[in-house]
Input
Amino acid sequence: MSINNTDEYYMRCALELSANGAECSPNPRVGCVITRGGSIIGKGWHKKCGGPHAEVEAVRDAGGDIEGADVYVTLEPCSHYGKTPPCADMLVSLRPGRVISSISDPNPKVAGQGFEKLRNAGIEVKTGVLEEECRWINRGFLRRMKEGRPWTMIKCAASLDGMVALKNGKSKWITGPEARTCVHELRAENDALLTGVGTVLADDPEMTVRYAAGRSPLRVVLDRTLRTPPKAAILKGGAVIFTLPSASSEKAAVLEDAGARIVRVSCDNFLGDVLKELCGMGVNYLMIEAGPSVTSSFISGGLCDELALFVAPKIMGNGRSFAGGAEFQEMEDIPRLKDVKYTKYGRDLLIRGLFECSPDL
Ligand SMILES: NC(=O)c1ccc[n+]([C@@H]2O[C@H](COP(=O)([O-])OP(=O)(O)OC[C@H]3O[C@@H](n4cnc5c(N)ncnc54)[C@H](OP(=O)(O)O)[C@@H]3O)[C@@H](O)[C@H]2O)c1
Output
C-alpha cells in the first residue's frame, strides 16, 4: 500500500469510530486511530459532550506511549481549554511522529491553531485526508459553526400524489410499519424534532423514539399564539415551545406548568431566530416533522438541507400537499434535490436527498 492509501485506510478506520459518537452534540463527532509499524496500537472516539476527546481515548487505549507513532484524527486537535484541556498540547508532550487529520475545526477558538501548535513543536502534520467524508459526518456541527443554524432535515410521509393529509386533516396511517420504524431510527439520529401547532392539534403526536434504539431528542413546537393544549402528549417529558413576544403570559404559565419551556422570538425573523436559539441549545441536527404550513415555510425560506420523503403507493386526491404552502413563479426557482437515494421500506419508497440550496459544508 502506498503512503496515501495507508493514510486513507487508517483515516477511514477513524471515521468509522467517529460515527459511534452520535450522541456527542453539541460537540463534533471525532474518531482517532494511532498506528506504529503498520499496526493499530490505539483507538478512540468522542462519546459525549464533557467526556474525553477522541485523541485522549486513543492515547489511553495505546497505553500512553505514542512517541514516534502516527495519529489519525478526523478533526483538527483542539487548542483551547473547554470542558477538557487542549488535545494539541497533550500530543505535543507525547511526541508522535506524524499527525494526520482531515479537516480544520471551524470553531473560532481552534480554527487552525491546533495544527499550528503541532507544527511549531516540530511534529509533521498532514491534512485533507478523506475530507469530504469527514465533512459529511460532521455536517451538523459544521452547519452550526459556519451558518449559525443546525443541519435541517424535513421528513414527510406522502401519498403518490404528494398528499400528507386528507382535506379534513386525517393522515393516519399513510405509510406502513417498516417506514415508521425507519422514522424512529431517523429521529434517534437527531438532536431535536420540530413540529407546528397544527400537527399538535390534529394528531397529538408524542414525537419520541419508541420503535428503535436510542434516546428521544428534544421536542420543539412552533406556536406563535400558544394554542398548544396543556394536555398535549408532546409536553410529557418536556418540550420547547417557540412563540411570539406578544403571546399570552397566562397561557405561557399554564404550559410551563405542563412541562413546556416557552421561548419568545421576534416576529420579523421567526424561523431564523428559532434556528439560532436551537443552536444555542446545542442542537446540531434538527428533523422537521410538521404539517404543510411549517414544512412550506422552511422550504420557501431556503432553510432546509435534506429531505426524507416516504412515498406510499396510495392516492389521497384533493388533500394537503406536503409543500402546498410554497409557491414559485418560474421553473428555475423551484427547489431541487441532489445526491438522491431511493430505498424501499415494505411497500413504501424513501426518497432522500439534499436540497441544492443547502450551503457547502
Ligand atoms: N404525513 C405527514 O408526514 C404529516 C406530518 C405532520 C403533519 N401532518 C398533517 O398535517 C396536518 C397539519 O398541517 P398544518 O399545516 O396545520 O400543521 P403544521 O405545519 O405542523 O402547523 C401549522 C401551524 O404552525 C404555526 N407556525 C408557527 N410558525 C410557523 C411558520 N413559520 N410557518 C408556518 N406555520 C407556523 C402556525 O400556527 P400559529 O400561527 O398559531 O403559530 C400554523 O398554523 C395534519 O392533518 C397532520 O395530520 C402530516
Observations:
- The chain has two domains: 3-137, 144-355.
- The pocket of NAP is lined by residues 156-157, 164-165, 169, 171, 174, 195-199, 202-203, 222-225, 227, 270-271, 289-294, 297 (CB under 6 Å).
- The two ends are 30 Å apart (CA to CA).
